[in-house]
Amino acid sequence: MESPKTRTIPPLEEATADQLKDALLHWEDLEDSALIKLASHPRSARRLAGLRVVERELNEAAREADRAEAERFDASTCPPAEELFDFGRGPGFQYLGEVREEILARHLESCANCAGLIATLRTPPPLPLEASSEQAPNLHSVPARPLDTSARWRLFLVAASVAGMIMVPFMMGDRGLGLDHLPEHTITRGPSTTAHFPQLKLLAVPDAETGELLASPYFEFEGVATAGEYRVEVRMNDGGPFEQGVRVQDLREASPSLAGAALPLGSYSWRAWAEVNGLEQDVVSADLVVIEDPQLTDLLTSLDAEASVSELVEAIRELHASGFIADARALARRLPQSPQRENYLRLSAD
Predict the structure, then answer these.
(1) What CA–CA distance (Å, rounded) separates 243 from 246?
(2) Axis crossing angle, helix 98-110 with helix 294-301, rounded to the nearest 10
(3) 307, 313, 319, 325 alpha-carbon torsion, rounded to 10°
(4) Pairing of strands 213-215, 196-197
(5) Rg of the chain (C-alpha set)
(6) Residue 217 Cα distances to 84, 134, 170, 300, 302, angstroms
(7) Rounded CA gap, 257 and 218, in Å?
(8) 3-class DSSP state of 286
């Protein structure tokens, strides 16, 4: 389970070189607000972008190792009961990773025993008997069927019985999530205290025509009174010596909600201004990186135009929990109008 991000940093204008180095070394543990400051400050933005590129390369190397493991898969070897329990989405399950779950799915196709264990997670517990003492059945009249004595079966049957008692649905079934199950609303603010999206990261998905991995940014922030127009500038940062990056988009709209053009994989920064009485007023700036996540990409591409509210809410929860808040908000706009939907999409804490 991912540890909570509680690490903070001192004001960067007053931070020493050692404090800045320590913050960069532990950037994954920083609170979101601290990470935003680190990503937008000239002393640290370029180095942080470089660290994110390294992380992306390491993640790709890990995925390659997983693929190599999948190629060495032996279908005759049964996995541990704990993995089957997690794969069947028992209570308190741990996600095993895309490759490992694919391996288990392939194993279940050829192993009836393991498939049977998974199926027990779908069986609800028996209803209690409401019989008087005179009518109580003789529980000893029928001999009990002997159980498999292996430790693997005992461990799994205990876990499966717990799952049955709380009636956890099977992993491929409809979880019955409704609008009340949308993630808890969190106002995300940057250095200027203005709530805004996107920030930190956007999910890249394959383009329908070219197959290229692209993200579709939708810039939104709190408006400024009497503003006649808003402008958003997007720059691509390559982690090189040019800290300001290369401008790739310049957007203008009458409202503080601007749809940008598709962005390929990479590191970016964006900045918004409001035109008030003919003068541009700085509103907000943020740093983000467009990255790929095969599991979440598969989840999004599986949602067609007829996706149910339950399916949409489940995908929103997955995106939100993974830190792809802007992508979760984009998906939430497909939900029917409701107070819950508006509460999740609101920018103001009022």
Answers:
(1) 9
(2) 70
(3) 110
(4) unpaired
(5) 25
(6) 38, 70, 34, 16, 20
(7) 7
(8) strand
Q: Which amino acid is at 241?
A: P
Mean pLDDT, range 124-144, rounded to an integer: 48
Residue 109 has which token pair? Answer: 């196709």
- Binning the chain into helix, strand and coil, the percentages to the nearest 5 are 40, 20, 45
Around 337, how many Cα atoms within 13 Å sit in the side-chain half-sphere?
A: 0
Single-letter code of the amino acid located at 323: G
Say if residues 224 and 281 touch (Cβ distance below 8 Å). yes
User: With left for phi above 0 and alpha for psi between -120 and 50, is residue 344 left, alpha or beta?
Assistant: alpha
Instruction: Give me the amino acid identity at 12.
Output: L
- Which tens digit of pLDDT belongs to each residue from 333-344? 999 999 999 999
Judge whether 284 and 272 are in contact, CB under 8 Å: yes
pLDDT at residue 157, as a whole number: 53
Helix 309-321 / helix 325-332 crossing angle, nearest 10 deg: 170
CA distance 142 to 81: 30
Question: What confidence tier does 142 reach under pLDDT thresholds 50, 70, 90?
Answer: very low
For 267-285, b/e burial (b = at least 16 CB within 10 A) is: bbbbbbbbbeeeeeeebbb
